[in-house]
Amino acid sequence: MDTQDINIKITDREGVTHEVVAPTDMAMNLMEVVRSYELAPEGTIGICGGMAMCASCQCYVKSDHELPEMTDDEDAMLAEAFYVEDNSRLGCQIQMTPELDGLEVELAPES
Predict the structure, then answer these.
(1) What secondary structure letter does DSSP report for 90?
(2) Where does residue 52 fall: left (phi above 0), alpha (psi -120 to 50 degrees), or beta otherwise?
(3) What are residue 85's phi and psi, to 5 degrees?
(4) Residues 32, 36, 37, 43: is their CA dihedral positive or negative?
């Protein structure tokens, strides 16, 4: 197995958990991983293209991984989003890194 790949669990909006492999050497973020595995219908995730300007990629972080500090843009966007929980993050702001191996997230409901 390539050490640049990590295993993450993503629970989709139907409640189905998918175990996927994400590359850490392609500068992908969580939203792009969800998109590449088609775990959310086209046009329902990453609508703004990963600019933290919509909350379509909001997810709930279920594992206790150390995530990058939230940016002001992400914080402001989540302040306006629906279904926000304490563990909400925007998937487009979570870069796939080796440290996130074993990450578990659940996609937030569509707003």
Answers:
(1) E
(2) left
(3) -120, 170
(4) positive
**And the tokens for 4?**
């640049």
From CA 78, how far away is CA 63, in angstroms rounded? 19
Contact criterion met (CB below 8 Å) for 77 and 53: yes
The pTM (predicted TM-score) of the whole model is 0.94
Among residues 14, 3, 25, 38, the alpha carbon closest in space to that of 96 is found at: 25
The CA distance from 23 to 4, in Å, is 6
Residues 66-99 pLDDT 10s: 998 999 999 999 999 999 999 999 999 999 999 9
